[in-house]
Amino acid sequence: MHIHILGICGTFMGGLAALAREAGHRVTGCDAAVYPPMSDQLRALGIELIEGYSAKQLDQPGFAPDMFVIGNVVSRARLADGTPKFPLMEAILDRGLPYTSGPQWLAEHVLQGRHVLAVAGTHGKTTTTSMLAWVLDQAGLKPGFLVGGVPLNFGVSARLGEGPAFVIEADEYDTAFFDKRSKFVHYRPRTAILNNLEFDHADIFPDLAAIERQFHHLVRTVPGSGRVVVNASEDSLQRVLDQGCWSPCVRFGPATSGRASDFTAQGEPDDFEVLRAGKTVARVQWRIGGVHNQMNALAAIAAAEHVGVAPAQAAQALQSFENVRRRMEVRGTVSGVTVYDDFAHHPTAIRTTVDGLRRQVGSSRILAVFEPRSNTMKLGAMKAQLPWSLEQTDLAFCHTAGLDWDAAEALAPLGERAVVSGDITGLVQQVVAAARAGDHILCMSNGGFGGIHAKLLDALQAR
Fold first, then answer.
1. 8 Å CB contact between 132 and 87
2. Total of domains in the chain
3. Is 347 helix (H, G, I), strand (E, B) or coil?
4. What is the pLDDT of residues 359-402, one digit of tens each?
5. Domain of 390: which CATH number?
6. Global pTM value
């Protein structure tokens, strides 16, 4: 089969392309921005890439895909002059050519007949998916996986695997312009992790209740012989379950609101005992910091147990877990100043990331450098939470390009600790001027952030 992927350079679609190629399909694709590292990875797999969404792609000699797989970046939008933003999509519709969404293609061609372990939640999906895939791999289950990032233990974001288990990051974002259901309803998991749930994606969800409804759609697809692994401390997830749950439910984390928890942790985030029904069953000692990662580990252990991996075996595997690229990743140290790269962009994720670093560095100064880049943050839906998310930082530098709201006003509660700049060059200059030996510069964005990490290191070196 020849499939042509629209929006192929996104993390999810790029992973899908790798899986399709590994399965023996001919894969081509196009995107508005074809650039490294994703372009290099895809071309190394023998995948032909086309820049842009021109309808002329359909008229190339010998170009006749059996299926067009449409990424959710594609829409029916029109430019200011009235022309389509995605003329290739318009041509596909006009000519009646076969098309489907990425999640639907994945469900039909990769996940069918597999034991799918899906990891859902507002935060921690990528890390927990990577943990779970590594645990199953070390247990000899040879799982397939698709992660929205690059697990350092594997070096790739996706592989088919040889065993029945397939671990997938289950995103609640919508599927495609023609399918507004959340991506994860396509995956039909037998084991589902509900890691946490709070409001996000303000561009497609009007409120938290709307996201809870989508999570319940996921719960509806888990069979009676399956397992739903749920964060015991989240009231929002309890509301999801209150709508109906037809599968055994295993809870993890500290029990709250009178809800019992099956898997709990006792000890520090980097060295803790795992308790099952109050009895110690394993111990995790690793280099991964943060209470949030301790919770992610409990979720992975509880899910792995469902496919026969004992908690002690899972904990042993986690001791060699190397995390994911762009998760508190050290990019370099110059003159005693360390620069980190992290994917945090939601206020809760920013606060959690800062807290994790604070636990590592003690009283050393933390300089947070961030950009409100996600659709939710650009809309200003959570700007009031930013001062709360940055409480433990010593200085906070905000890149304000593309915002329709006043970042300086939103960050005013931080007083002189907050600095804003509309361009990367100015931001780098401000950060470098403030930095001193022993500082930790934490860069947070869900995008490339204009290559700010390398620019900061270069500027520190030049200084």
1. no
2. 3
3. helix
4. 888 999 999 998 887 766 767 777 888 888 898 999 999 998 87
5. 3.90.190.20
6. 0.81
